[in-house]
Structures are given as C-alpha cells and as structure tokens.
Specification:
Helix content is 36%, strand content 5%. By secondary structure, it is mainly α. A three-stranded mixed β-sheet has the order 3-5-4. The longest helix is centred in the first third of the chain and has 30 residues. The chain is globular, with a radius of gyration of 27 Å.
Length: 414
C-alpha cells in the first residue's frame, strides 16, 4: 500500500509540474510571441543592408535619406503589421509581421499590393509559424510547374488574369511552359532513343511527364530498368547525363544550382546557393534558396549557364570558356590552371562569341518563345526558335527583317 501511495504521489507531482510548466510557457509566449523575435531580426538585417548602401552611396541627399531610414528603424518597436492586398479585394494579411524586411518580388509585383497568399497560399491571419503556414503552397517555391496554375496563373473575378488565359497566346505561360522543350526534354529523349537503336526515327514519343497540347501527346519517359529487370541504355544515358536539367526538377547545390519551375530562370541564385536578403525567417546556412525574394524577366546569363554548361557547353563557349580533354586539364604550361568555373571545373579562356563581346545576353536572341514555348509540343529546338540569324543579319538575297511594335503588343516589355 505504501508503494502504491508513493507512486500515486509521484504521478501527481509530475502532472502538477507539467501543468505549471505549461502555464509558464503559455505566459512566456503571450509576453514574448515568436513574431516579435522575427521582426527584431528583420529590423536588424534591414539596418545592416542600409548601412552597406550608405557606405557605397556618394550623393549627399541620398545619404541623408538612408540615414533617416536607419534612425527610424533603430527607434522602431515590434508591432503587428497588416496589409490589404489589391486595395482590399482580398482579406487582410499579417505575413509581414514576421517577414519584416523581405524584398518586393519585383517592381510590378510589390508586396504591399500583391501580398503573400496570392502566390504562396497559407493562413495570413495567424501569427504563429505553424498556424500561418497551414495550406502553404509548395514550401519555399510556389511556382513549381505543378503549382503554377494556382500561383502564377491566378485567374479570379476579383484580381483578373495573371499568366494564363490571356488574349495573346504567348502570354499564357502557365499552359505553354510545361509543353516547352525545357520542360519536356522531348528532343533529347527521342535522339537518345534513336542513337541507341531503340527507335527507327527521332520523332518524339516521350517527355519528362506525360503532356498533350490537343494535337500531339507524349508519354512519360520510361524507367531505366523495366518490370522484367532489363536495363535500357538510352534511359540510363538520359538519367545520368541529361535529366538533371529540366523545369520539373531543381538542382539545390552550392555551385551552379537553380530552382525548379518558373524560378529556375526568373529567380536569382547565388554562387553559394544561399539566401542573402533581409527576410529574418529564411535560414542562411541552408542550400536551395534563391539569393533574394525577387523575380526578373531580364534573365541574366548565369541562369542559362546553370544548365547549359555541359553537353555542347554552349553556355561556356558563348562566354569564351572551353572545357574538354584538351583544355580542361588542371595543368597549364607545367603549372596549375587558375581558371575554373564556380563548381571548380578547369576551363581555358578563348575568344568569346562576338555577340557576347558586344554585350548581348542570351535572352537578346533566345526570346520568351524560345525558352517558354508557344503552347505547342515541339520535337527539337529548331522548331521552337523564334529569332534566327537571318532575321538580324539578312542573307545574300534578303535584307534583315524589321517590324513595328506597339506598346500594347504582348511581346513588348516596358
């Protein structure tokens, strides 16, 4: 009986202690909500960025403006921040309370107008990490191709049409991109199957995922080893050398990495694959985040080179870099080669393409139709290309092509 009484008292003590600790934790949280810690960190990060801007600024008036912003932030106390996206057409959002300091997506997508839920989903009224992220779309990336229709293609009576169901067919990016060669890899797969003797021609029959444009349909690429245990050399070749570069997948790594889906091209990705912006909630030691919370339609060459640095090496050759059995060795004239890519591959510097010398970027010739498609499934890259050499340079018999574009043309960027 004494042993039973002692056990009962022990259970009561443990239960009472747990109850007291629970009350203490709840009280602590009520006095120190997690959003306050995030916002304080966001304020500190924003001050650091402004101090860096101040050190680099030379104009006196702009220096005064930056100093004024720094002073305001130093005196700022954490508070709940609430915005009403699209002039109140959507419900109020409190996301900026924790994500204080996060960058605007772009000049045409300011956070104060678009908010967060339009693209990311989630529960914008909650101020806890767990509660606010219920229903979050895609984790760190809401613009994966299988989610883009909800995030990038938002089409509602309240907001209008975004990147789908537009009058100009080339602007229906949500529908076009999954059918493009950068998403299907149809040409690569068909050529490999033809070269390995699996097919009698190079007409595409397979893609990364099954896809159709209403006229042409492609099946999902076959597995490397079939159900009977037979190895397919063409599929094995594809997975070992080619399959890492398509828009359905990402390359979360420190060197020459990229995101998945739309951000693969439109989001900046740093040399180390880490976030360097001012959002206090993003881990800075974690690989796989964009460099900042921004998107651009002026795609820099480094986004193209993240994929186009193997195979034909066109992304390297355009910039005057050569990697091969002859040039890519670690030794040059008896010493170590000091020319390397960001992933430490050795290269040799040659004369760059004349277009690169004249400061032309990849997207100056490879337009949105080249990269994002025109809504049709194409077999090979030459079928999807919009701008050809003759268009600018003419030929022996024809002058260069010219056209007049108006501001309401869907292909014109302001």
């Amino acid at each position: 009986m004494k042993a039973e009484g002692s056990g009962f008292r022990l259970v009561l003590i443990v239960a009472a202690t747990a109850l007291v600790l629970s009350f203490v934790y709840v009280e602590y949280r009520s006095r120190n909500p997690e959003w306050q810690a995030f916002q304080k960190r966001g304020i500190a990060l924003t001050i650091q960025r402004l101090e860096k801007d101040l050190a680099e600024e030379t104009e006196r008036d702009k220096k005064r403006e930056i100093l004024s912003q720094i002073e305001l932030l130093r005196n700022k106390q954490p508070e709940i921040l609430e915005i009403s996206p699209f002039g109140g057409k959507l419900g109020p959002e409190r996301c900026m309370t924790c994500h204080f300091g996060i960058e605007d997506v772009s000049g045409s997508h300011p956070n104060s107008v678009f908010g967060c839920v339009t693209c990311h989903g989630g529960n914008a009224a909650d101020l806890t990490v767990r509660g606010a992220h219920l229903g979050l779309r895609g984790g760190r990336n809401p613009a994966k191709l299988d989610l883009a229709s909800a995030s990038c293609g938002n089409n509602s009576a309240a907001l209008g049409k975004c990147h789908s169901e537009r009058e100009h067919p080339l602007l229906n990016r949500v529908e076009n991109v999954p059918r493009s060669l950068m998403a299907t890899n149809a040409g690569i797969i068909s050529i490999l199957r033809f070269q390995w003797g699996v097919e009698n021609d190079s007409n595409p029959k397979f893609a990364i995922r099954s896809i159709s444009d209403g006229e042409t349909s492609l099946k999902a690429v076959l597995p490397e080893i079939d159900q009977h245990g037979n190895l397919s050399l063409s599929e094995s070749h594809f997975r070992k050398f080619c399959a890492a570069c398509h828009l359905w997948g990402s390359r979360h790594r420190e060197k020459m990495g990229r995101m998945e889906g739309c951000p693969a091209c439109h989001a900046p990705y740093g040399e180390e694959g880490r976030y360097v912006g001012c959002d206090p909630t993003v881990k800075r030691d974690e690989v796989g985040h964009p460099a900042t919370h921004t998107l651009t339609n002026r795609i820099p060459d480094d986004r193209c080179r993240a994929c186009h640095n193997r195979s034909a090496r066109v992304g390297l050759n355009y910039h005057g870099q050569m990697e091969s059995s002859q040039y890519g060795t670690p030794f040059v004239r008896g010493g170590l080669n000091d020319e390397t890519l960001s992933d430490d591959r050795f290269v040799w510097k040659l004369v760059p393409d004349i277009h690169h010398e004249k400061t032309m970027a990849c997207i100056d010739c490879h337009t949105g139709q080249d990269t994002m498609g025109d809504g049709k499934i194409h077999a090979h890259m030459e079928d999807q290309i919009e701008v050809r050499c003759e268009d600018c340079h003419g030929s022996y018999s024809t002058p260069p092509k010219t056209m007049t574009a108006s501001w309401n043309d869907g292909r014109v960027l302001e």
